[in-house]
Amino acid sequence: MNLIKIDIENMVLQDQFQSLHIVKSVSTAAAVGSSRSASAAREVTMVGFDDVLYQMLDKITGDARERQILPIVGMGGIGKTTLARNIYVSPLVQESFDVFAWTTISQEYNAKEILRQVHDQVGMGKGDDLSEYELGDHLYKYLFGRKYLL
Questions:
Q1: Residue 7 above 80 pLDDT?
Q2: pLDDT at residue 19 greater than cutoff 80
Q3: For residues 123 and 101, what is the distance between their CA atoms, to the nearest angstrom?
C-alpha cells in the first residue's frame, strides 16, 4: 500500500509540475555549473512554481532515514533542470546535507564520467586515474553513513 501511495504522490507531483509555466533567465554556464552559491539561486527566476518547489524541499529535508530517489520528469524545456538547481542551492537543503554533488545525466551518458564528476566534487581529490569500479567503491565508502544529495 505504501508503494502505491508513493507512486500516486509522484504522479500527482509530475502532473502539477508539467502544468507550470517556467521562465528561465539564466545563462547556460550558470545552469550547468557546479556552484552552490546564493547568487546562482538568484539568477534563476521561476513563475508559478512555489508549490512544487516546497513539496520537493519538504520531501528532501524531511525526517526520512532511508535513501530517497525523487525523479523529476517531463517534456524537454519545461524546467526540470531549473527546478533541480533551485532545490540544490536552497539554503534549507544546504543545511540539511553533509555532502553535495551536481552532475547532468542525459539520454546518452558515461557512467565513469558521472562517477568521476561526483568524486571530484565531494572533496575526494581528482579521480582521473581510477577505474569505474574504483570510483564507485571510493564514493560508496565515503558516502556511507553520511547524508548526501546528488
A1: no
A2: no
A3: 10
